[in-house]
Each structure stands twice: as C-alpha cells, then as structure tokens.
Amino acid sequence: MVLDGGKRQYKVVREVFSGEKNDVFVCMDLCLEGAEYKTAWRVKDREITKKLLGAPEIWEDSFVKKEHMYFVFPYREERPLEKFYFTTVLANSLKEESIWLDFAVRCMTFGIPNEILYLLLKQKQAGITPEGKVYFNYFLDLSEYGQAGKEQDCAMLCAGEILALAKAGGDTTGSSTELLKQKLGRKAYGDFFQLYQDLKLMADRQEKKNFFNLMKDAFVKKRVFFYRCLCVSCLIIVLSGAGVFFFQAFFGETVLHRIFGHTFEKIGTESLLQ
Predict the structure, then answer these.
(1) What is the pLDDT of residues 48-67, one digit of tens each?
(2) How far apart are CA 168 and CA 87, in angstroms?
(3) What sign does the CA torsion over 70, 75, 78, 82 have?
(4) What's the number of CA atoms in the CB half-sphere (13 Å) around residue 127?
(5) In angstroms, rounded to a whole number, what is the distance separating the alpha carbons of residues 261 and 143?
(6) d(CA 56, CA 145)
(7) How many degrees, rounded to 5, is the angle at CA 6 between CA 31 and CA 8?
(8) What is the distance between the alpha carbons of residues 247 and 255, in angstroms, rounded to a whole number?
(9) Which of 100, 107, 156, 209 has the greatest number of beta carbons closer than 10 A?
(10) Nearest to residue 75, comparing CAs of 60, 57, 53, 87?
(11) How far apart are alpha carbons 176 and 206 in whole angstroms?
C-alpha cells in the first residue's frame, strides 16, 4: 500500500497497530534517496487531529486521505529504554544520573502535547541510542487519549520510570534515589523543572561521593607504599637522634652546634666577638 501525501509518497512496509482512534505504520519515503523509514499515523479522532495540527513542530508531514488525517514522524531504531538501559550504561561507562537527566530534559523540551506525552511515557515508548541518548518512538495507541493531560501527570510518570531504571541498574538500597522516592510517594512533582532540579541535585551528590570514593580507593591501593614511607621516615629520625646522642657523648657537644655554632663569629678578617 502506498500513502499519497501529494508532495511525497510513502510505501507501507509494516502495519504496527490498528485501533479505535488511530493506526500506526512503518513506511518508506519514496521521495528520499535511500528510501528512508518513517512512522505514520492514521488518526480517526477529530479532537486528536486538532491537537496535532496545533503542534506542527513534532511531525514532518501531514495530509488527508479518505476522510482520515495522516501524520508522518521520524522512525527510530527500536531500542526500548528499559531493555537496553543497563547494557548501554556498561558499554559506554556512563553515569546513570546523566541518562536520568537526559530523559527528564527530553520530556521537558519535547514540545508534544501533554496528553500524547503521557501516553508515550505510559506505553514505554522511550528508547535509548547505543551512545546513551534518550529518544521517543511513535508506536502509540491513542485509544486512552484524554485520560490525563497535565504536566504533573507526565512528570510523575517520568519520575517513576527513572526510579525503575535505578533499581534495574543496581540501586537496590535506594540510597541515591531516596529523594525521588519520597516525592513520588507524596505526588510532589508539579512539573518537569522540579524533577530536573532534584535529578541535578542527586547527580551532584553522587559526583562528590564518587570523588571521595576514588580518594579512598587510591589510599587503600597505596597503603603499603605509604606504610613503607612512614617506616623509612621513622627510621631516619631514630638514626639521626642516635647519631646526635653519641656525638655529644664522645665530643661533649652536638654535631649541629659544632657545624653552625661558630659560623658567624668571624667574617673575613673581622671578629664579631670584639
């Protein structure tokens, strides 16, 4: 099947979903060299159509075909965030807090209507690139559209997803996400900026903790070296003290006094004792 958008034609290669309010297809853009893949929605609901038409920055093309409105979005590789999160962190030696922050910033700056962003989060449409950047796919069922449409709803869902990622990444004690857990319990996130501030605070705390851990690890690894240096220093001090004692016992004065005691009594041919 080919979707004729007037200026562009899209060949359907896979029907992902067919539902009450929308259908989802993976298409090839026949007007682009290399037949780039796209995601297309066939929207059957007028309210959703109106909402999407009011946010043209989130879709690449739109057209009418057989009384239905079509919207074309970028296609991204299917790498679900919850599935590829841990392996991506390990493969790139990434700090988990950086991914949490990127996730929140992506939601905050996405520009998509909150009613649709809520469904993207609820239906686990967040993905992660091999380099660790968060993005959204568009394989979305819009049948639940309108159940929640506030930024607070989206921020709470995002925070819950981040908490789940932290547990999947090995934060079994919850020590690094205690603040997040407390505010989730109180439903205290009213917008994404509040969530971002807390994530930034958590990242800064973890950075300081990592610094002190590195210092501690460095000391533990070098403790034998430090112990040997301390022993050598103590031995030198003991031998020096013993040498001074024996010199005084045999010569009646300390070696330091003999070396420095008469140094300034005479300068040139003049005696300073006169």
Answers:
(1) 999 999 999 999 999 998 88
(2) 11
(3) negative
(4) 14
(5) 98
(6) 19
(7) 15
(8) 6
(9) 100
(10) 60
(11) 7
Give the whole-angstrom CA distance, residue 126 versus residue 212: 34
DSSP letter string over the chain? -EEE-SS-EEEEEEEEEE-SSEEEEEEEETTSTT--EEEEEEE--HHHHHHHHT-GGG-SEEEEETTEEEEEEE-----BHHHHHHHHHHHHT--HHHHHHHHHHHHHH--S-HHHHHHHHHTT-EEE-TTS-EEE-----GGGTTS---HHHHHHHHHHHHHHHHHHTT--S-GGGHHHHHHHHHT---SHHHHHHHHHHHHHHHHHHHHHHHHHHHHHHTHHHHHHHHHHHHHHHHHHHHHHHHHHHHHSS-HHHHHHTTTTSEETTEETT-
Cβ atoms of 1 and 13 within 8 Å: the answer is: no
**What amino acid occupies position 266?**
K
